């Protein structure tokens, strides 16, 4: 169903331009009159002199001396409209050089070449090209598909509580992978982020146990708990791997067209993974049959709202913020869905649910705050260092007080 987004190549003009092989016919503003200014790219006509020129350098000016001017005053070669006797020259001249930057190279070009260079530099720093989006979609189709299959398999063989608890470990996987392969300096692991992820995990555990009607001891003694736990951990790891490396592939300055990315993910899933359905059918692992009318309608509605639209909004948020915030937002779906049950279905849950909702939301807010500040300023680590320093100072003072012997006592001991 993700292939629906590929209709953008029919109805959306910027996507159609990406398909044109000759980019020379596709530069915006190429056919503008020379007198018009491109308000989108330049603020004013002095951008090259402000941003591309180096600082001023003053060097001695080559000015002929008075004797040289007198000697060549009668010569025809030295004649000029402005006579040297009436002009006062400065002994220093100001020199500026064009720096070796993209703006400086554009400033040296003519008008048409400068428009092409501006467009190419915008494409390079901004939206990814069509071949780049296709390549990224092809690589991440398998990871995205495996993560979804693992989650569905976990729900099929294990309790919902076990799946929800273990799926929330994707925040820990994301924190570790983002620290190992950072796409931005703010992805650095800090003690505050780690504690916030643990708080969120603990809140998910309380929410899940509070929402379950079964006995918690039954969850541990279930026959399928091992396979369900393995599928849940695999799905959580695939989601973290998919998100972290997608951010890494796009880069901090790149802008991925998320609808186009999902469109090609759907195309590759439909065209490359359908042989798996045939293999499962003939191996009698899962028989293929067409659904009835009502299940088909439910599948289509759930696919459009629960997958096509929700995944698009979620990945948009991840690209706009960080991979850790995107992963932590998935933990909010569990308490929010149960809150909807409480409001509309008048369901009743134990006190563990209400205790666990607070840490889940609080951890998400803390991670969102920490992800938009300097990772060197870690509040928890700063408090730990201050407490450690205070303890060290107290111990040093106690050691000094024990080592110092009063002078009167020393004299009394010596006399005795």
In brief:
The protein has 416 residues and is an all-alpha fold.
**Total number of strands:** 2
Please give the domain count: 2
How helical, in percent, are the residues?
55-70%
Q: How many distinct helices?
A: 20
Class of secondary structure makeup: mainly alpha
Distance between the termini: 98 Å
Shape: flat
Instruction: Indicate the low-confidence ranges by residue numbers.
Output: 21-50, 79-84, 213-221
Keywords: Membrane, Signal, Transmembrane, Transmembrane helix
Membrane topology: Multi-pass membrane protein
Family: Belongs to the SLC35F solute transporter family.
Function: Putative solute transporter.
Write the layout of secondary structure elements.
Layout lengths: L7 H4 L1 H6 L28 H5 L5 E4 L5 H6 L20 E4 L6 H6 L3 H15 L4 H28 L2 H8 L2 H11 L10 H21 L4 H5 L4 H26 L7 H15 L2 H8 L10 H28 L2 H8 L2 H12 L6 H20 L8 H25 L3 H9 L1
Antiparallel strand pairs: 1-2
Helix pairs in contact: 7-12, 7-13, 8-10, 8-12, 9-12, 9-16, 10-18, 12-16, 15-16, 16-18
């Amino acid at each position: 169903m993700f292939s629906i987004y590929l209709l953008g190549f029919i109805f959306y003009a910027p996507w159609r331009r990406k398909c044109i092989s000759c980019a020379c016919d596709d530069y915006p503003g190429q056919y503008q009159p020379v007198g018009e200014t491109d308000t989108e790219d330049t603020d004013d006509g002095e951008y090259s002199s402000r941003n591309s020129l180096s600082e001023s350098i003053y060097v001695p000016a080559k000015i002929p001396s008075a004797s040289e001017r007198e000697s060549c005053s009668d010569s025809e070669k030295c004649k000029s409209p402005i006579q040297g006797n009436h002009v006062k020259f400065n002994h220093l001249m100001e020199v500026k050089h064009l720096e070796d930057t993209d703006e400086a190279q554009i400033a040296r070009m003519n008008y048409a070449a400068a428009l092409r260079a501006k467009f190419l530099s915008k494409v390079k720093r901004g939206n990814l090209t069509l071949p780049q989006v296709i390549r990224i979609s092809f690589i991440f189709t398998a990871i995205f598909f495996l993560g979804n299959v693992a989650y569905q398999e976990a729900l099929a063989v294990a309790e919902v509580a076990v799946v929800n608890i273990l799926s929330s470990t994707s925040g820990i996987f994301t924190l570790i992978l983002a620290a190992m392969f950072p796409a931005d300096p703010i992805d650095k692991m800090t003690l505050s982020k780690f504690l916030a992820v643990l708080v969120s995990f603990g809140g998910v555990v309380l929410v899940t146990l509070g929402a379950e009607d079964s006995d918690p001891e039954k969850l541990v003694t279930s026959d399928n708990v091992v396979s369900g736990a393995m599928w849940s951990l695999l799905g959580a790891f695939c989601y973290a791997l998919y998100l972290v490396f997608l951010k890494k592939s796009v880069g901090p300055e790149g802008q991925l067209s998320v609808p186009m990315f999902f469109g090609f993910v759907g195309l590759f899933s439909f065209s490359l993974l359908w042989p798996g359905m045939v293999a499962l059918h003939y191996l009698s692992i899962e028989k293929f049959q067409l659904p009835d009318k009502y299940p088909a309608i439910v599948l289509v509605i759930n696919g459009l709202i629960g997958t096509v639209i929700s995944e698009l909004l979620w990945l948009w948020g991840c690209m706009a913020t960080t991979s850790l915030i995107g992963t932590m937002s998935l933990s909010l779906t569990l308490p929010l869905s149960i809150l909807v049950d409480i409001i509309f279905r008048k369901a009743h849950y134990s006190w563990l649910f209400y205790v666990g909702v607070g840490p889940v939301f609080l951890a998400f807010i803390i991670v969102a705050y920490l992800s938009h500040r300097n990772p060197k300023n870690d509040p928890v680590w700063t408090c730990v260092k201050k407490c450690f320093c205070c303890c060290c100072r107290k111990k040093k003072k106690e050691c000094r007080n024990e080592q110092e012997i009063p002078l009167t006592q020393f004299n009394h001991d010596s006399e005795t």
